[in-house]
């Protein structure tokens, strides 16, 4: 039995500056947290090999700068993504209100073949901050995710490593499913094109 080819999954992480995108990535990949991260300039990425069911996959996690001036990073950055993670800070209502803007930006730039079924995951980060400072309730966030087609939702803390592993497990699984569906669709189209282009194929009418 031949070895199954190694899969590279591209995951884009979007959200306002300061919501903890870099911290979440570093907690997941390196099991580390630092409170002194500098703002990301442009884009940066980390990779991690993980098992999804029986498959070894390499996740390429792309972290973007949340500042408006870096928002249009170009089509090449978004293209080929298998999953998009939208991050907000549960203690910052503006970062939650911006989720739609980030989601729309991704769909425009990445232009996936099937935008209505493209996998998104929403992370409400910084739940380690005291409850009195919280501005977005879990109920409100879940209602938003349901209205967008039941997007998976996790409340996380990069600082305390709460639900980070579980969230990225779902991200990896959804990204792999997307990658496989893209491959299936490409193979199907190739078969259809061969059938119609083949002069020996005759007419099916």
UniProtKB/TrEMBL annotation:
Domain of life assignment: Eukaryota
GO cellular component, one term: late endosome
KW GTP-binding (keyword) present: yes
InterPro entries, per database record: P-loop_NTPase (IPR027417), Small_GTP-bd (IPR005225), Small_GTPase (IPR001806)
Pfam families with a match to the protein in the record: Ras
Key words, A-Z: GTP-binding, Lipoprotein, Methylation, Nucleotide-binding, Prenylation
One function term, GO molecular function aspect: GTPase activity
Entry-linked CDD domains: Rab7
Single biological process term from Gene Ontology: regulation of vacuole fusion, non-autophagic
SMART domains for this protein: RAB, RAN, RAS, RHO
Keyword Lipoprotein recorded: yes
Record-stated family: Belongs to the small GTPase superfamily. Rab family.
Protein name: Uncharacterized protein
Source lineage: Eukaryota, Fungi, Dikarya, Ascomycota, Pezizomycotina
């Amino acid at each position: 039995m031949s070895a199954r080819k190694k899969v590279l999954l591209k995951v884009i992480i979007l959200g306002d500056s300061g919501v903890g995108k870099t911290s979440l990535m570093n907690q997941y990949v390196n099991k580390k947290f630092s409170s002194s991260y500098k703002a990301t300039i442009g884009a940066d990425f980390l990779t991690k090999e993980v098992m999804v069911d029986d498959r070894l996959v390499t996740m390429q996690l792309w972290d973007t700068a949340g500042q408006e001036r870096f928002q249009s990073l170009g089509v090449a950055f978004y293209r080929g993504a298998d999953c998009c993670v939208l991050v907000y800070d549960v203690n910052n209502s503006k970062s939650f209100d911006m989720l739609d803007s980030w989601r729309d930006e991704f769909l425009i730039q990445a232009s996936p073949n099937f935008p209505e079924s493209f996998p998104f995951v929403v992370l409400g980060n910084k739940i380690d901050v005291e409850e009195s400072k919280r501005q977005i309730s879990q109920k409100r966030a879940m209602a938003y995710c349901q209205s967008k087609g039941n997007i998976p939702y996790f409340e996380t803390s990069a600082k305390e490593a709460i639900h980070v592993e579980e969230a990225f497990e779902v991200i990896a699984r959804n990204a792999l499913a997307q990658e496989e569906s893209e491959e299936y669709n490409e193979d199907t189209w190739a078969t259809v094109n061969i059938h119609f282009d083949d002069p020996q194929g005759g007419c099916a009418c």
